[in-house]
Design brief:
Largest sheet: 7 strands, mixed
CATH superfamily of the largest domain: FAD/NAD(P)-binding domain
Number of strands: 21
Number of domains: 3
CATH topology of the largest domain: FAD/NAD(P)-binding domain
CATH class of the largest domain: Alpha Beta
Radius of gyration: 25 Å
Distance between the termini: 83 Å
Amino acid sequence: MSFRHDLVVVGLGSGGIVAAEFAATLGLRIAAVERARPGGDCLWTGCVPSKALIASARVAHHMRTADRFGIGAVEPEVDTTEVWRRIRTIQEGIAATDDSPERISALGVELVSGEARVTGPHTVAAGGRVLDTRYILLATGSRPAIPPVEGLGEAGFLTSETVFTLDRAPESLVMIGGGPVSVEMAQAFRRLGVPVTVLQRGPRILPRDDPELVEILTRALRDEGVDLVLDAEVRRVTVEDGRKVVHAGSRSWAAAEILVAAGRRPNVDGMGLEEAGVGIGPRGVTVDARMRTSVPSIYVAGDLAGRELFTHAAAHQAVLAVRDMFFPGRARARAPIPWCTFTDPELAHVGMTTAQARAAHGDGAVEVRRRQLAHSDRGRSDGATDGAIAIVTVRGRVAGAHILAPAAGELIAGPALAIARRLRLTDLAGVVTPYPTYSTDITLVAAAAAYESARRLRRLLRLKRW
């Protein structure tokens, strides 16, 4: 059967752009459908604006706490209108260059504007036409999940999709949810002078991360003035005297605005997936290890699959899917996906937690080695001693890593590679790192394990007799 296109990509967010670029370098005939503007959540509502916000907030925090470094502290004059203007400037710069339609078209990708609907295993309706293709890659992402709270809709609320469309920061905030988005934003807003309360229905924030490191981060956030309320099951929202009031049990919190950060939902609606025979589960489109749906010619990358909801995961899955479509053999999603919560300090995670490792392999096979930043020469020099590194091993091999430190998102790449290559912790002891860096502390964790191994083998020492 002859097709006009080799691949039609639906959605030009992180995954879709990477897939289109990769496929274009192979000389394939590509069409990409986008209903709004290229860049997706990462550029317009997620990674880029939130990290720009965090950067501005960090500067304000450094000014306010400069006396810790022997420099006179000053209370910064924060104009959040200018902060929001800076965020938009960064977004527009990326949109005009790396994510511009012109650059994508110049790669040989045919851009189609409009809503997409899958009408068969090899056809997508969009822009008033039907695109026929050998393969389809769906990369339509996700959107904020809105909890069914009485009065929330009537009162009005913000999400990560709308907060950056404002002209400035709200005067005060109550945040519903204690995951990465909420925690990152709470610290940033507080550093910019905005009173913030975070309501988390569970016993701790960031429940997927190492409990000990989360406890340290929780103390740091509270020390900066973030009001973290745990075990708060939000029941209703009212508006009183022009302020929005969130009620949980017998307690209530009032603020100028509510920001909902209670998870994400995959964008599966309106694409005709079920009619086309594509299976959908509770977390998103059902895919196998090759990112294929129940229809072999239709693949998925990114949040739509409901796996790891990260930009880098979407890009990785997009490349894997294109490789599986057009190259011999089978490409399987095996690489461990790290993540990072970009608070200060950052909290990064890859692989298993201690509890997961023990549940899977038993207590006897699992060992956890930790190093506090209070013993880090770089941490002491930087005034960043509230943090730690934890490496989880199973029978000596690296199975997980958890880092609370400045630039933890950069540091996590080494342990991620160790997990992917099934390296032993002692293998990392042989990596030479610049001193003093936080990466040295990872080497020192590994060196401690290597020293213990050497002590067990000291009977083999060859001692020269004089």
